[in-house]
Design brief:
The structure is a homodimer. Chain A is built from 14 helices and 17 strands. The first copy, chain A, is of the alpha/beta class and about 450 residues long. Chain A has two domains: about 110 residues, Roll (Urease, subunit C, domain 1), CATH 2.30.40; about 290 residues, TIM Barrel (Alpha-Beta Barrel). Chains A and B meet through helix 2, helix 9, helix 11, helix 13 and helix 14 of A and helix 2, helix 9, helix 11, helix 13 and helix 14 of B.
Chain lengths: ~450, ~450
Amino acid sequence: MRPDLRLDNGLILTMNDRFEVVDRGFVEICGSNITAVGRMTEISNRPQPHEVLDISNHLVMPGLINCHTHAAMTLIRGMADDMPLDTWLRDFIWPAEARFVTAENVFTGTQLAIAEMFRSGTTLFADMYFFEEEVARACIEAGMKVLTGEAVMDFPSPSHPTPESTLKHTESMATQYRNHPLVRVAFAPHSIYACSKPLLQSIAKESRRLNLPVHIHLSETDEEVTNSLSGNGLRPLPYLLQTGISERLIAAHMIHTDQKEIELAATLDMGIAHNPSSNMKLASGWAPIDTYTRSKIKCGLGTDGAASNNNLNLFNEMRGTALVTKLLCKDPAAMPARKVVEMATIGGARVLGVDNITGSIEAGKAADILVARLDQPHLTPLYNIWSHVVYAMHSSDVETLFVNGRMVMHKRVLQTLDMATILAKASKLNKKIQIDLFDSK
Amino acid sequence: MRPDLRLDNGLILTMNDRFEVVDRGFVEICGSNITAVGRMTEISNRPQPHEVLDISNHLVMPGLINCHTHAAMTLIRGMADDMPLDTWLRDFIWPAEARFVTAENVFTGTQLAIAEMFRSGTTLFADMYFFEEEVARACIEAGMKVLTGEAVMDFPSPSHPTPESTLKHTESMATQYRNHPLVRVAFAPHSIYACSKPLLQSIAKESRRLNLPVHIHLSETDEEVTNSLSGNGLRPLPYLLQTGISERLIAAHMIHTDQKEIELAATLDMGIAHNPSSNMKLASGWAPIDTYTRSKIKCGLGTDGAASNNNLNLFNEMRGTALVTKLLCKDPAAMPARKVVEMATIGGARVLGVDNITGSIEAGKAADILVARLDQPHLTPLYNIWSHVVYAMHSSDVETLFVNGRMVMHKRVLQTLDMATILAKASKLNKKIQIDLFDSK
């Protein structure tokens, strides 16, 4: 079959098992897949594609993977900052959510998040929020990949009166989207402190029956650990295992772990979503991510919601992961650039259980591809592409983005979303949320 | 006199003493100065300018101030990363510098640095390097403000055979640039460990005689403190005072200080240049910047050289300062956004001793002005402009930049530098430096 498109003359970070870098290489795309990757000197062996894009002086790498976010929280980006966690939650985030979290607003907030994520090179994100059917709808419309996670807690959510209803809804979404090219579905118990043991046990059972991932906040704060020890007699991870949740586990944060938990994590089918900006901004602590990666635990990066970041830019998370780990380990060699790029790409794909289909530039994988300019002052000269990506590159260097072979951004213009309309809608909502909040005080 | 230009309808962060924010405001520019700032409702009282720029939906704030860098080190950006400090210095940085630091290359490297700094909103930087006459020349050509600092050590530098020659050169530059609109001159002893006591004493004397600032690396590493204690019987700051250096002092880093040094610093005519990215990347430690600001010590931000950052983007430094301080203080309220914006603007001007002429948007000050787009997904919605600048904004949002009223960038296009030529020159040099380095091994 004649390929649809070939990207010619790029510098390719394949992120394959050998971390191969191809200078002056090509990537061939047919339908939604990559069909060949190689050096320009080898293209004479390849069939002529319908279209060739010359990307000399550009970097080609896998689209970035955001392993933990609450996309629609973009609507309350910067609403409340620089304050203690309980004031932030009780006086701002929860009252705001009580007012703005409707199906319609989640759709708008997710569109805004997708616009931002496309423009910073993200092609797949794991979400945990409410009205996830709207998240799926926004992603399908825009051509974004998502692992949805309808948040479940003991108490009623904005979208469901009972946890049972949420679980049923998750099952029906899983059925609806089975084999969908963009949408996958996870169970998303909020946390061990917001979900009773019986609820966690039924999620364990259902997730096994339906073969779905379980996406949960775990060991985010010191308090969570203290309470788990006093309430459950166990630290968070062993307690979670006791409920039966032990497979396809996506643990967001994992900041406060002890040596035994780390050893335990290494034996499990689990991945960690590390959220450096949010963990710093809320002063939650710092995950020992260097120890996790050295222990061969699957690790990816997340932005968390825009309310605690305040953006969804994985370039910030890469830079933060490398720099802060060096500082805290007192070792400039800790978390070298290549390891961090791995977390943002194939590592994230492993965490979300999709490394067989995405996360690297290899024949047979989905064409989830980021193309970035290199002809910029802050990227000149170029000695080492790994260090450039982590320490020097900005999200705005991302020029073109493909998801499943579909060009969702080109020359920084979104191809599948009407940005002006989304920005106008979100700004209008902001005014409403602000007025509502002030009225209620 | 009829004003040259008025910026209309912007959201203005004045950074005046009251941290006034003007929504739908104007900034009037005449020659190199700001002549008026106010609300759009007040413009009927103002004379008609030659030109009006409508900047609805844009932020206006003072140009950012980089209090510590080695501009020409852009030429070895990313040459060596993720390695212990001594390997980095001995095997890479020093051998590379021995080869590439010539007058011509410093000029090129500084041009590259200015291109990058303009494109990330910087209008003034304090440099410490060699061939500073070339740094001054590059800045004058481009219209950038600089405080030059020809590095002086006990041993010969690439530009001067003896420290005496460097001091003479500094004096002659100070004479040459007296009252220059863009260039000021400082003495720049490298550090207390690279300068003998007699050398520091003569710098103390000369800087007092010529009324010039003294820009020095101070308390950057644990080792420096230990060696100062054992060699001088004093910690770095009291030792420096003993040499007579106590006025117009710009101390870069100031990471490892004790309570007494902090109290001492608060009584002195000194400022601190905090370099978060470099301090993390080299694992040097973290300056107690919250304590410094609470102690009313003048504090600004720096990027350090591109070899240890790896860019010259003060938005990264703002974000890092806020986030890492929160993490280390275990307090999400530590280093709130406004305080960080202060460090990047008027605070930096105080550190460099130029707060009477720049660092805020006020009538009478120089028109050193940054204009940034707000109509971006990652900046929508807008609740709080302070948190947007620190946590959400990217350097690429800077659209237009003025230095002394001259437009040096407009719609992200540099107006005074030929970017393509500079990038080509720097890339060529990179190949030469790489070949030389490999040949020497």
